[in-house]
Write a structure and sequence with these properties.
Order of helices and strands: HEHEHEEEEEHHEEHHEEHEEEE
Strand order of the largest sheet: 1-3-7-4-15-14
Distance between the termini: 52 Å
Number of helices: 8
Strand content: 15-25%
Largest sheet: 6 strands, mixed
Number of domains: 1
Structural class: alpha+beta
Radius of gyration: 19 Å
């Protein structure tokens, strides 16, 4: 058997194995995030791809990241214009791959700019553009996968899936960025501003004028992540914690997901558990069983270290991760503690 045929056969076996192990038994439950594992390159010797063992670790970590968001994001909101709703397939397909990237880059992810159907565009009352991703890409560096722990790969996957859903990558396309007076560009989405006011403890205010976003780092980081200088997103000085969707990796810190990040997905026209569940569009492939994902989630899908309330404020993620992004994709680097 040729090496190419062996690799393809092995990938099919791995995909089938993880489908059996991770997916709920006898369930037709639809998921917002679906994975395409055809981009994973396997080499029995591990020289021109991942060994079967490392490929298995990669797939497992990616599926944990998928489960994290599928337990929280239920689907698309019926507040989307009808012309947009009619174009939606019901979920987001992410192509998972690996390669030797080099240059200190650990990986990249984001909306797939090469696919015609990657962004469904529409307008609300002809004044606001709407962009909803339907396909995305996710690639990690082979050496990073080989040298990292399962928790580290999982945390990177959770961060990158957030970008694939649109956090940072589709803010501008949805009119969620702007200036207030002469100040810098900030995040202006209403749902995230309300969540931020609560988390920041702004006395007497139900909302804030903006949510601070990263201004440093250049293309790939600036305007695509929460500001890691904000004490709401960076509490390292108090308890050594930093928010999941900030743009820099700081070693030996604990990462958490904020309600502001979850609320940003509501601004991006998703239905998010604990926020706007009454707005869920019932696609043929979206079943009511999704409203209680924990009941059908296998043990291998559950992530440890979370509050029993899936939307408890500032959920801990365990290992650390972070990323920088380009306009269409996200680059992942490491950065020393400030």
């Amino acid at each position: 058997m040729s090496s190419s045929r062996f690799t393809k056969l092995l990938l099919l076996v791995l995909s089938a194995f993880f489908l059996m192990v991770v997916s709920p038994e006898n369930s037709t439950q639809a998921q917002v995030i679906d994975l395409d594992l055809s981009g994973i390159v396997i080499d029995p010797e591990g020289e021109n791809g991942l060994t079967p063992a490392n490929a298995a670790r990669y797939v497992d970590a990616v599926r944990r990241g998928q489960a994290f968001w599928n337990a929280r994001v239920l689907g698309y909101s019926n507040t989307l214009p009808q012309d947009v709703q009619s174009q939606l397939p019901g979920g987001l397909v992410i192509l998972i791959s690996n390669q030797e990237i080099g240059g200190g880059v650990l990986g990249f992810a984001g909306v797939d700019a090469t696919t015609i159907v990657n962004i469904v565009r529409g307008t609300i009352f002809n004044t606001r553009q709407v962009a909803v991703g339907t396909t995305a890409i996710f690639t990690l560096d082979d050496d990073f996968i080989r040298q990292s722990t399962d928790d580290e790969i999982t945390d990177v996957a959770i961060h990158e899936f957030g970008h694939a859903l649109g956090i940072g990558t589709l803010w501008d396309d949805n009119g969620l960025l702007g200036q207030i007076g002469p100040g810098p560009i900030q995040y202006l989405g209403a749902h995230a501003r309300r969540a931020f006011a609560i988390e920041a403890g702004v006395a007497g205010l139900a909302t804030t004028g903006f949510v601070p976003i990263e201004q440093q780092g250049g293309p790939g980081t600036a305007l695509a992540h929460w500001d890691d200088d904000s004490p709401t997103f960076n509490s390292i000085a108090r308890d050594n914690r930093i928010e999941l969707m900030t743009g820099f990796f700081i070693p030996n810190t604990e990462r958490f997901i904020s309600r502001t990040s979850l609320a940003s997905l509501v601004d991006l026209h998703y239905v998010v558990r604990g926020f706007n569940e009454d707005e869920l569009i019932e696609f043929p492939r979206v079943l009511a069983s999704r409203l209680n994902p924990q009941s059908s989630m296998t043990a291998s899908q559950r992530l440890t270290g979370f509050s029993s309330n899936p939307f408890g404020a500032n959920e801990s993620l365990g290992a650390s991760s972070a990323a920088k992004r380009r306009r269409a994709t996200v680059n992942i680097y490491k950065k020393r503690r400030k």
